[in-house]
């Protein structure tokens, strides 16, 4: 029987969503003219039960781990880059640090399974399950027990921060080889073929190796993959992916919006939605990644990304870049004048729905 | 003979662009993985001649005017809404005010031709050419002399702010009826048909009236439209559109990036590019508007918008929403560690171009 996770995810607050939608219609603009910002303001009201949810306490959870499959020529980078980039995060020199400083986001770096002894650091949470997964081309990446442990670690990260006043969670990742593991997770949960999920990476030879690795992983782990989402995650996933599943589930359980980064976070979101479908209501897709399989993930989750900037970096960079749009959505809903307040002639109600006020 | 405008727009700085591109390749990320942020950092270097152009002093120029054609049922709003919304801008209650506060942008509101006696206000520049254009369905909206005067007013607005340290200009508009005038300007400069430029607005009857108005305007003003871009602007444009042409041209002349808002600003950008093609190098398209003809305008200008959020409000809202991306582009280029600084293993140079570091 498939493993499950005991978690309660509250339904979205319909009343708050209706109030937000009604207020959008009274603001001094043609109804609908702020497009996706209006939708976002309504979604955020549904998640939080408030028309003015606070967004000040914002954290990107950048989870790192190594992958056995990285030794099989699927990445342009040597495996030690995972640890080197974690040190770069702690020194504040990576893209995620720069963008997080700009957007006033705290970066929580967590080691879920880096194959290196990382130094103690106030900004590093050590939650190492093991020093890297086994190669998914030979058997399961990890045991089901280890997958559960990594998910629990991700949940604990969020639980600790919720206790400290977390308003909005963002997901991020670092792990050489983790696009291959993510592609395998996506194939496992969607029955898509590896050729529709794995795009060009290193060169044509690298692409072939990566597709072949995913295909082999699916064959070798077929029985475990078919058992359920947690088993599939254990079979072909990674420790940071499992940790992100926990981050997403716990954010939803705490009624906190969770901004999903790109391809790797998308794979984790797919697992989270398979475990607890109600989690999808708390997800905000930040951007459309350049990775081939990302579109299919978003369609499966019913999410439309806010940004489309040809990003393919990970770390949480896309999620952080989307934050000003969340803030804009909440601010316009709450701070704009209504037609009444501003003494602006109300437009014809019938016409308003498809009008521009120009 | 067609009217022309004397203006010198400097070429983009190739050396700075090459330096920016080279630095992008040394930062701790796979080359190209920050996608459009990388392109943007290179464009901004070309415009300003600096890898770290300042962006702190940012102004949205929201230009307002009335339109004779608004009396012909092309808008869902009565014409007095233009003046009411200008007052709303001055009171800080409109969407542009809320977003500008969030993004630390100053809103300069200018009356280029509102059909109302607006009160004096420290944030309002009075540059009224006349109280609204004549209807473009009966003849020219304004004289060529008036068009030049409105363009000059827009240029002066920017010149004054450049003297005070303006770093980046944003365009915005307010004017009941101005999507009809903008559609006509676009038809005039692209030879597109009104059915491909004018989309559904009020209702099917309103749509027909709007298309018919544009078609009539093109027929009635055919000779003037064919003379040149300034004449076409005078024939079927509006005072705020003409003012925005000046804002765009002068920003380019001062080597300041100019963030173009949506459909109305796009029409102005098209006129500016027809007058001085080099101005295009200084334009940044903020978003893809819901207005039908906007895509054609962007293609004609060779611009790819940064955002796609189903906006159709104007005022400069889309331009302001894109600002954090400009800031992110400049910050990542300048603040990220290089591979050398971070001691991160350099990836295979050949492979790097198409790789993800995951």
Largest interface: A-B, 81 and 81 residues
Distance linking N and C termini of chain A: 60 Å
- What's the shape of chain A? globular
| Residue share in β-strands of chain A | 5-15%
Oligomeric state of the chains in view: homodimer
**Cα radius of gyration of chain A in angstroms:** 21 Å
How many helical elements of chain A?
15
What can you see in these coordinates?
The structure is a homodimer of 358-residue chains. The first copy, chain A, has 358 residues and is an alpha/beta fold. Helix content of chain A is 49%, strand content 9%. Chain A has 15 helices and six strands. A six-stranded parallel sheet of chain A has the order 3-2-1-4-5-6, with helices on both faces. Residues 348-355 of chain A have low confidence and may be disordered. At the A-B interface, α2, α3, α4, α6 and α13 of A face α2, α3, α4, α6 and α13 of B.
Give a brief outline of the structure.
Chain A is of the alpha/beta class. Chain A has helices at residues 14-26, 35-48, 81-91, 95-103, 144-163, 178-190, 204-220, 222-227, 229-236, 239-253, 263-275, 294-301, 317-335, 339-342, 349-352; strands at residues 58-65, 106-113, 124-126, 168-174, 258-260, 283-285.
């Amino acid at each position: 029987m498939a493993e499950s996770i005991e978690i309660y995810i509250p339904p979205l607050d319909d009343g708050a969503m209706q109030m937000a939608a009604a207020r959008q219609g009274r603001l001094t603009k043609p109804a609908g003219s702020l497009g996706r910002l209006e939708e976002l303001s309504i979604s955020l009201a549904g998640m939080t039960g408030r028309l003015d949810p606070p967004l000040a306490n914002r954290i990107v959870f950048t989870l790192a781990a190594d992958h056995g499959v990285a030794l099989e020529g699927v990445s342009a980078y040597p495996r030690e880059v995972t640890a080197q980039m974690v040190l770069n995060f702690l020194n504040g020199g990576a893209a995620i640090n720069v963008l997080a400083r700009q957007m006033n986001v705290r970066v929580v770096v967590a080691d879920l399974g880096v194959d290196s002894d990382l130094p103690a650091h106030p900004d590093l949470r050590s939650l190492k399950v093991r020093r890297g997964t086994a190669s998914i081309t030979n058997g399961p990446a990890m045991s089901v027990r280890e997958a559960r442990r990594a998910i629990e670690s991700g949940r604990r990260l969020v639980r600790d921060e919720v206790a400290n006043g977390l308003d909005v969670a963002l997901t991020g990742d670092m792990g050489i080889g983790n696009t291959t593991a993510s592609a395998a997770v996506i194939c496992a949960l969607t029955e898509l073929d590896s050729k529709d999920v794995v795009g060009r990476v290193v060169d044509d030879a690298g692409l072939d190796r990566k597709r072949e690795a995913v295909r082999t992983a699916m064959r070798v782990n077929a029985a475990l993959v078919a058992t359920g989402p947690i088993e599939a995650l254990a079979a072909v996933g990674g420790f940071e992916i499992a940790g992100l599943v926990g981050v997403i589930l716990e954010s939803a359980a705490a009624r906190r919006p969770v901004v999903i980064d790109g391809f790797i976070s998308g794979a984790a979101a797919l697992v989270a939605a398979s475990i607890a479908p109600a989690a999808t209501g708390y997800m905000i897709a930040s951007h459309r990644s350049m990775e081939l399989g990302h579109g299919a993930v978003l369609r499966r989750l019913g999410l439309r990304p806010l940004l489309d900037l040809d990003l393919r970096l990970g770390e949480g960079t896309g999620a952080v870049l989307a934050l000003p749009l969340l803030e804009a959505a909440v601010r316009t809903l709450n701070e704009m004048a209504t037609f009444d307040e501003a003494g602006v002639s109300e437009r014809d109600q019938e016409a308003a729905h498809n009008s521009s006020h120009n």
